[in-house]
Amino acid sequence: MAEPQTLVKTSCYHCGDDCQTTAYQLDQKQFCCQGCQQVYTILSGAGLSSYYQYNDHPGITHTRNDKRFDYLSEPSILAELLDYSDERLSIVTLYIPQIHCSSCLWLLERLNRFNPAIHYSRVNFLKKQLVVRFDPRQMSLQQVVELLNNVDYEPLISLQDVIKKQNKGGKGNLVQKIAVAGFCFGNVMLLSFPEYFGLSVYEQTFRHFFGYLNIAFSLPVVFFSGWGYFISAWHNVRNRVLNIDFPLALGIAVLFIRTVAEVLMHSGPGFADTLCGLVFFLLIGKFVQQKTYHHISFERDYRSFFPVAVQVIFEGREKPLPLSELKTGHRMVIRHNEIIPADAILLRGQALIDFSFVTGEAVPVTKTLGEIIYAGGRQTGEAIEMEVIKPVSQSYLTQLWNNEAFTRHQNNRMKTFNEKVSKYFTVVLIAVACCAFLAWLPFSLKTGTDAFTAVLIVACPCALALSTPFTMSAALSIFDRNFFYLKNTAVVEQMARIDTMVMDKTGTITTGTSKRIDLDAELDDLQRRLIYSACANSIHPLSRMICQFLGDLDKLPVTDYQEIAGKGITAKVAGHELLIGSSWLVIGDIATAPLLTRVHLMIDGQYWGYFGFFHQYRAGMAGVAALSPAYQLYLLSGDQDHERAELLRFFPHDSHLFFGQSPQQKLDHIITLQKQGRKVMMLGDGLNDSGALKQSELGVAVTDNVNNFSPGSDAILDGRSFDKLPAFLRFSKDTVTIIHLSFLISLTYNLIGLSYAVTGRLSPLVAAVLMPLSTVTIISFTTLATHFTAKRRKLLL
């Protein structure tokens, strides 16, 4: 048998991966697979070769499955996915998580060059959405999706509609309110300048005319832009709750009433400029506070990674069936890397199920024929056939998710600083106003009324209302730059009060599938080649890691190869008998539970040792461990205690390590800590952590790809920034300190203003100067201070 050729490593022209074969060459360019070669052919054939000028290696490697998109031909599914459809035109909006750069934008907006049936395609870069208009007579939705998949931009289509959720979250007319308030504010300021500089006796007619115009401009500001504050204040009063919206609404009302009264009675110019400026800046603050990440979904459940349809066998043939129509007795086909959507019995094939996302157990589990396999597992081997025993709505995973403990509304969220202060601020403000009125009442009703309204105008908590949103938004932008995405601004304050950290293991403090390999055996070059040649025939993750560990070796001829699912490999390599796998297969030991995942080696009847697999812990885990004793650290893992000894490097107390934890046990443990008065931050990555994430004061989903599925949470932490977690915690405390300081600045301005207000002689000029000056001071201070502390924590360069 001829020796195989040794390949000189080259990179794929399209995706940049190493080429393991020379079989795919075109136009003197090397490709790693037929898929990349086909994409290049499509691009060059459509005259889009300049695509590669935007990105040297824009493609990504993907696997093909001819039947994956057949469900898109089902009318019931089309009706749900299409935004509009008639005989000549169909419009669809697709969520494409791979969108990340200018080359993506460039290519996706030129889909009509690939197929003239596509009339139009436009990308919303922030939301990672693609809108496609196409002719259904010439092209189906399935063909559109297959075309996108061929150029490595496969849409994410799941039971939980990402597109509808994102569009729903974007509704509202806040921008229109800001535009109206800004327009009126500018005009009122223009009309008020003559009043500030004084009008001669001959120009008093213009003074009254400008006053009437100011009232006209104030009407849309109060009754359109600022009306939400009145509604919020009314609801809060009905519920006997005082928040910051009540004094804001009171201030707006007093400003408007006094402006109308002074202009109509020709007793003064009123406070229209202050009124419009107040509403405008408040709405700007609300807009900043509501700023969110459209491309990230924080509210997710099991439907986010369940498929829309599944392949079932009907009358001897496979056909796609919507998951909502999957019933007991249906026989479904699950292929490699596909999710099992319903509890079912294994009828055919070798099942090697990865339950890591549901239970946290990292090692795939072997299932035998006739055994029940629960929903949520992922098949990692060949195609299998299963008979559904429970519909999706009644499966174990669905029942778990619908458990009251996992869906309860959280009442354990801590109140923000604004919520605490605003109640007392409102009471003190009204008390001071009433005292000023009563003090002046015996001398002059008019002066008493002026003093009462002036206190409400000057002490209106606009600076307090702006300090938190602008500080928190600046903090959110810092976190965003460091790949830590928070659901809203309140999460920053919640993080600052945390004193206990609870962590999952697999995929959270470890890097998921990446493992460290130790070889406990002395092997010569021939034995390494024998093992490499046998493992190269397997698609099992451990076999691939062994091949990667041994390096690129020449393969030897393999015969009598057999892979026993979940046990290992038997083969004859170059005349040598090999057993590679579990202790049960190699040495017949079925009683001993290993302290770590091991692959044992036997060559020609002689035992040589084993490969030991350790999880690769994330960079920065030592830094997180150093947070103790300031923070109590706990581990709640669904995995077994294979690595207890190694984990004691990071967790100082053995009693804080819990293994084999079910989702309910994790949730119960969080409740136990909360009953002890602890403020808990939970870090997890899978469905088994969902209940604990919801129950904790702060739930953080850790992921290596923010666009992939992660459970519902308050924040999403990219694995690349795990080492910055201590800095994030310290920065959150700094941010709260900045809010407290900005409140003191606001309080200082209020005290200065009140000294004018209680005299009853507050002029519109003083109000017009004090209010914007305090606002500008607060915004400048919070922005500069936040960026300074971020640099001190090394979160900004």
Total beta strands: 28
The proportion of residues in beta strands is 15-25%
**Spatial arrangement of strands, main beta sheet:** 16-28-27-26-17-24-25
Quote the distance from N terminus to C terminus: 60 Å
| Main structural class | alpha+beta
Shape call: elongated
- Average pLDDT, rounded to a whole number, is 76
* Helix content percent band: 40-55%
| Low-pLDDT segments, ≥5 res | 1-8, 60-65
C-alpha Rg (nearest Å): 33 Å
Secondary structure tally, helices = 27
Largest sheet: 7 strands, mixed
Overview of the molecule:
By secondary structure, the protein is an alpha+beta fold. Helix content is 43%, strand content 18%. The protein has 27 helices and 28 strands. Strands 16-28-27-26-17-24-25 form a seven-stranded mixed sheet. It has a six-stranded antiparallel sheet with strand order 8-7-9-15-10-13, with no helix packed on it. Strands 18-23-22-21-20-19 form a six-stranded antiparallel sheet. A hairpin with a 2-residue loop joins strand 20 (568-573) and strand 21 (576-581). The longest helix is centred in the last third of the chain and has 33 residues, at 725-757. The model is unreliable at 1-8 and 60-65 (pLDDT under 50).
